[in-house]
Design a protein that fits this description.
The complex is a heterodimer of chains A (331) and B (475). Chain A has 13 helices and 2 strands, in the order αααααααααααββαα. By secondary structure, chain A is mainly alpha-helical. In chain A, strands 1-2 form a two-stranded antiparallel ribbon. In chain A, helix 1 (2-31) packs across helix 11, helix 5 packs antiparallel against helix 6 (110-139) and helix 8 (189-220) packs antiparallel against helix 10. Chain B has 475 residues and is mainly alpha-helical. In chain B, the strands form 4 sheets. Chain B has a two-stranded antiparallel sheet. In chain B, a hairpin with a 3-residue loop joins strand 7 and strand 8 (406-407). The radius of gyration of chain B is 24 Å and the shape is globular. The chains are: A mainly alpha (331), B mainly alpha (475). Chains A and B meet through helix 3, helix 4, helix 5 and helix 13 of A and helix 3, helix 4, helix 5, strand 2 and helix 15 of B.
């Protein structure tokens, strides 16, 4: 039962990495799009393609939080009492970003838009970095079972920095691919080219960070490295292949399965992390079973997750279809 | 002199608590107090918008359609702010109150999971609805708004379930300080659930209704008395005014339930130091050194309201064990907040009666300046009423976080130095609040400049016209 709940929790983590991640990555490209005149095209595309979906994408985070605190309350408090600083930073990013994005859409004057845009973009870096660092802290076993671990070193260490940087570049990669395909579909050739070159660059940087990451994990988190290179090896290889396939598709300017390939690469890496850490929820010391709530609670959670599958997934499909077909007007 | 004693006494009591308790509580109160203002707009403004939308589609009422469209944009901005302040709250539950989440997360966490489900549906359909004005067919578009309204009701009820469980916890088995078994139905539908949930949902409709009415009343005061303004005013005002009397009945039932099940809170509400019969209803007043001061007592009234006879015995603060008895300041806060809630609600009810009388006399939207002025401030009065209601239930639970199980001082984090965090949160929230008001005002200005007729009405203009507008793309 705890394993099943953990699987549902992890589905949320993957969904948030892919969907929320792409939104944060869009913030990265918004930040680097240049001045108000030069960045108009990319920013307009970012506005129209994220506008209708960002709140639904953000909700995956809430899903993960409630699954974690209800299903594994001791682990939740261990994480929050140890990693409260990056959590606060992530919350700050989420807040400024949501507010900045929602307000920018409704303001008309350029200085105002610039202010909200800056809030949106800067905080888009802050949040993925913080979540990546948190993941690194959990994976490398720096969150003690009883909580109250070191407030600074727990998330300022080689694995956490790797996690943070990787999260930022992965988000940028996902976003560039999504936006490239979106621009291609709406026949905006120039913006499509713009994001294609950026997607390629992001893909290469992501690959580079991943290779460097192998050495960092080997030195800093030996168990995680061992599991990644043994039990989770197949997933890691598949993820690398998807990443390479993405680059090949990008170079050939093919867009038909590009989004799926990019999403698969990221999802497989996140999966690999999960498989490598199993059966532990925290590092190598707190198992899923030991951290789990009483069975009745887990059953309710299971029910909620099933209800989500029945109610949420079709609704999400409807939303993405309507948005994809231009039935939702963002003007 | 007494006031000084009270402060010193308060400091002495506070000294027993961990130093981080005060900033943690202040931060929670501030962020919850901020978030709660946004809730009525997520829950009820969407319903008002659907009422207008239905009227617009059913009767071809262009003013109503335009209202629905604009309200949906306001709802979108406030929903976004509510979503992020809500996210901050879920972080805070872990960061500030690990003692609560670690031990009781398995019990009262799952109502939040159910809320998450509803919130998810709401976020999806709110997007479809808001962005669907131009390109979805009329009735299909209307129906895409219905899940927003329903999900927001379900979501709010689920959050209140978690809150009411903290007031009247049930359905858990504890062993060695850990929750070992949970009865989900008893946790969710705890003793305080129905009263609190219905009370909060009705409050949301009242606040949103009066807030909308006050916007258009202000416009009418400034001379904008078109049919558009009258329709906007009526939809908001009539909804709130019709629900208000029902809310009074629900509130009365809830108070009696608190009298039966939460004696400490009831004693604080009634400002009652000692147990006894023939308890007067004290209006105003504070508790200093365990004695009621400066209040206006109405003889026997509290007993009469609680048990329908003047001889009804009400437990006073002396019935609460000394180590978990709330101190004088907390009791005074709860009592005064209750008075403010009842006072503001009565004022709003008087306004509703005034409206009904004017309407009955003239069969038209009343437009006397004094009535409109009263309506113009009714939104703020309703928000004050809502806030004071929450102060009663939250402060009234102290020193408990989970009554009978967990003291607030044991729930709080052991990390020290929370004041800088609290300070930053206040600054940040103020910035977001100011920016939100600024954006809403600029939307209003824009709409006014466009005029009521020139703006495109949903499903109205021919596609080529829409395409000809600068900045609009063809599908």
């Amino acid at each position: 039962m705890p394993d099943l709940i953990a699987a549902f929790l992890f589905i949320g983590v993957i969904a948030y990495s892919l969907l929320g991640g792409a939104d944060f990555g869009a913030g990265f490209w918004d930040l680097t799009a240049g001045g108000a005149a030069r960045g108009r095209g990319p920013r307009h595309l970012i506005d129209t393609s994220i506008g209708p979906v960002w709140e639904a994408n953000h909700t995956w985070l809430i899903y993960c939080l409630v699954m974690l605190w209800t299903g594994f309350p001791t682990a939740f408090t261990a994480i929050t009492t140890t990693l409260y600083l990056p959590l606060i930073l992530a919350a700050l990013g989420i807040m400024l970003r949501g507010a900045g994005f929602a307000f920018r859409k409704n303001s008309l004057r350029t200085p105002e838009q610039r202010l909200y845009g800056a809030a949106f973009a800067l905080s888009s870096l802050l949040t993925p970095y913080s979540f990546g660092a948190i993941a690194g802290a959990i994976a490398s076993g720096r969150v003690p079972t009883g909580g109250n671990g070191d407030a600074l070193t727990s998330w300022n260490n080689p694995t956490s920095v790797l996690g943070g940087v990787l999260a930022v570049v992965v988000c940028a990669y996902l976003a560039a691919i999504y936006l490239h395909v979106a621009a291609h579909r709406s026949k905006e050739a120039e913006v499509a080219r713009y994001f294609r070159s950026r997607a390629l660059a992001a893909a290469l940087v992501t690959g580079l960070v991943s290779v460097v990451g192998i050495f960092i994990l080997h030195a800093d988190a030996p168990r995680l490295f061992h599991q990644l290179s043994h039990r989770a090896l197949a997933l890691v290889i598949l993820a690398s292949l998807s990443g390479i396939a993405g680059i090949v598709l990008l170079r050939g300017a093919r867009t038909d399965v590009l989004r799926q390939t990019a999403a698969a690469a990221v999802a497989l890496i996140v999966c690999g992390w999960g498989v490598a850490q199993y059966p532990y929820l925290l590092g190598t010391h707190l198992t899923l079973g030991a951290a789990a709530s009483p069975t009745a609670t887990l059953k309710v959670l299971l029910g909620v997750a099933c209800a989500a599958a029945v109610l949420i997934l079709p609704s999400l499909v409807l939303l993405f279809r309507l948005a994809g077909r231009g039935r939702l007007d963002t003007g | 002199m007494h006031a000084l004693d009270a402060v010193l006494h308060g400091l002495a009591v506070a000294g027993e608590d961990p130093p981080q308790l005060l900033p943690a509580r202040e931060q929670m109160a501030f962020t919850l107090g901020f978030h709660i203002i946004l809730v009525p707009f997520g829950v009820a403004l969407t319903t008002l918008m659907l009422i207008a939308h239905y009227r617009g589609l059913r009767h071809g009422d262009k003013d109503a359609l335009l209202l629905a469209q604009r309200w949906s944009k306001v709802a979108a901005v406030l929903f976004a702010v509510g979503a992020i302040t809500g996210t901050v709250l879920s972080f805070e539950l872990g960061v500030l109150w690990p003692g609560l989440m670690g031990t009781y997360g398995s019990a009262f966490g799952f109502p939040f999971a159910i809320e998450g489900l509803f919130f998810f549906l709401e976020a999806i359909f709110v997007s479809i609805y808001i962005y669907g004005w131009k390109r979805l067919p009329g009735w299909a578009h209307f129906w895409s708004g219905v899940p927003v309204s329903l999900a927001s009701i379900g979501g709010a009820a689920a959050v209140v379930a978690a809150n009411s469980w903290m007031n009247q916890p049930g359905g858990i088995t504890m062993r060695d300080g850990k929750v070992v078994a949970v009865e989900p139905a008893k946790v969710f539908f705890n003793g305080a659930f129905w009263g609190e949930a219905v009370h909060m949902l009705l409050a949301a409709y009242i606040v949103a209704g009066f807030a909308v009415a006050s916007v258009y009343a202000t416009g009418m005061l400034r001379g904008r008395r078109s049919r558009y303004h009258r329709t906007g005013f009526l939809i908001g005002f009539v909804t709130a005014a019709c629900i208000l009397p029902v809310q009074m009945l629900v509130g009365d039932t809830l108070a009696r339930q608190v009298f039966n099940k939460e004696p400490a809170k009831f004693a604080a509400i009634e400002l009652l130091p000692t147990t006894g019969a023939h308890v007067p209803e004290t209006l105003g007043g504070v508790l200093i050194d365990g004695k009621v001061r400066y209040g206006l007592p109405i003889p026997d009234m509290a007993s009469l309201l609680a048990g329908f006879t003047p001889s009804t015995t009400i437990k006073g603060l002396d019935a609460i064990p000394a180590d978990v008895r709330p101190d004088d300041r907390l009791v005074s806060i709860v009592h005064l907040a209750f008075d403010v809630m009842i006072g503001t609600a009565s004022a709003l009810l008087a306004l509703a009666v005034w409206f009904a009388w004017l309407w009955w006399r003239r069969r038209t939207v009343p437009d006397s300046p004094w009535f409109l002025r009263a309506c113009a401030i009714s939104g703020i009065v309703a928000v004050i009423c809502l806030e004071s209601g929450w102060i009663v239930t939250e402060v009234g639970r102290q020193p408990w976080t989970v009554v009978g199980h967990l003291l607030t001082r044991d729930a709080v984090t052991t990390q020290g130095n929370l004041w800088p965090l609290f300070g930053s949160v206040v600054v940040l929230y103020c910035a977001v609040g100011v920016a939100a008001v600024w954006v809403l005002r600029s939307m209003k200005r824009r709409w006014r400049d466009e005029g009521d007729d020139s703006v495109e009405v949903p499903y109205g203009p021919a596609p080529e016209l829409a395409g000809a507008r600068p900045g609009k793309k063809e599908q």
